[in-house]
Amino acid sequence: MSLEPLLPAGCAEALAVVDRYYRTAGSTRLSQQAAATEAYQGMMGASLEAEGAVHPVTVALSQDFSEMRFILAGMVSGDYAAVQARTSRDVQTLRDVCNTN
Fold this sequence. Notes:
The protein is mainly α. Helix content is 72%, strand content 0%. The chain contains 4 helices and no strands.
């Protein structure tokens, strides 16, 4: 019997947040805003559990999701597509750090 390798602290929760975000974001501004808000809150929680190299990535993702929700809510101006692209890069970094490619 082989055991699956343990993920670094914070990875499981952070990866679950990312997965939930991508499943729920949808194509409307309202659904994307709701998904970004939920992801921001979830990633903040994940960052509390994260250790080592995982922690700064979860903090960066929290900031990404926060910026996305503020842009979508019209609270700040910004390039939503650019924030999405940065978020995708940060998600890939999270996958790299968690060794889940």
